[in-house]
Amino acid sequence: MSPDRIRIAVVGAGIGGLTAAIALRGAGLHVDVYEQAPVLTEVGAGIHLAPNGSRLLHRLGLGESLRAHAVRPEELEVRAWDTGAVLARQPMGATWETRFAGSHYTLHRADLHRLLAERVPASAVHLRHRVVAVTEDTDGVRIDFADGTHARADVLVAADGVHSVVRRTLAPAERPVLTGSAAIRAVVPADGPALPVDAMLTWSGPTGRLLAHPVRGGRQTAFVAVLADGSDVDGPAAAGESWSRAADIAALRWAFADWEPTARKLVESAAEAGHWTLYDREPLPRWSTERTTLLGDAAHPMLPHHGQGASQAIEDAVALAALLAHHGDRPGGVREALRRYEELRLDHTSRVRLGSLGGGSQRLGAGVAHVVDDVTWVQRYDVQAELAAAGVL
Ligand code: FAD
Hints:
By secondary structure, this protein is α/β, with parallel strands linked by helices. The chain has helices at 15-26, 51-69, 93-100, 109-117, 165-170, 236-239, 249-255, 261-268, 309-327, 333-357, 368-380, 383-389; strands spanning 7-11, 30-34, 46-49, 75-80, 86-91, 105-108, 125-126, 131-137, 140-145, 150-153, 155-158, 177-189, 199-205, 208-215, 220-228, 274-280, 292-294.
């Protein structure tokens, strides 16, 4: 079978699924994406694209559009929660580009999602297709949808997020563990709190941590507040482990009521925010069967403290496409490609997940240099260099 004859089904048109579609098509493979939503949209929140992820998107041809729509912060500033005094500064921008061979971008999730969607032909994305079951047989994979229809493919890539239907079949006994904290996210007009348009700011105080960064050319500011969370004590089913759940604005304001004026003003300028109860999950022992594999949050959900979820999904997508293009047309090639993909990615993403457990702004007490050092190995990692060294590229 030649690579372009392999039919690949990707479930989920999120950041991981769309990047997989771009990379697979770029490698000359045939892809259909099945997405449950009626339209392609993203939640209103900001996202960091770390150098290890942005480097790959540049190579996939998105460099120009990222430079046009993302902000490239010039520095990271740590402020005192009570006085607002600048405690530490880390240069980013060109300094990080030299250090990590890639740009660190901050942008609105909807912008990143749109830039990716623009690179996949609409004819390859099947909206209103909610997958309810996946069955492998000797000829391929059968994919059943909620409306009673089905499709077939030679390979199935489940990029259907943290509540993945396919992950549940591989790990039926999995139980997410509450961390006791929540991430509250919002995007606000930048002129309210008057923050610098080209810097990331972070504060760490007695009631929580706050991280703010510019999006949309500095016209808006995205923030994430990590706070103790009393909700969801009965598990994800009780309150719904969801990114789109509305936060309690009064409780958010109360948590920051005695913080320094800029931090307080930032939080107060949010008319609405999303509440994400943070759960941890142990890595799965395996991601792949003969013809099915997992990608992105479906494979390795992780806490947001390293800002790496999207970048890890992008690395998965690029690695999987290269391996399927390399092995796919040989007898047993799909199985070999999925085996090597899992071998390359499972251990790496498990280490990143472990770092995320206590990383990022959680470690501000250790000093900003340590926070950056914690992720240096993650941001330097180049999955394509690994594949080249293994003779795949
Ligand atoms: P998703 O984005 O969840 O996409 C899954 C897609 O599958 C969706 O479109 C969904 O509708 C679809 N789908 C689901 N089920 C089905 C089905 N049965 N049938 C068909 N379609 C289906 N990462 C970073 O890199 N930087 C950050 O700064 C950052 N901040 C974060 C902050 C918070 C609070 C959280 C919670 C996460 C953060 N992340 C961050 C993580 C990152 O956003 C995710 O890791 C990333 O979006 C995962 O992408 P995905 O494509 O795997 O999953």
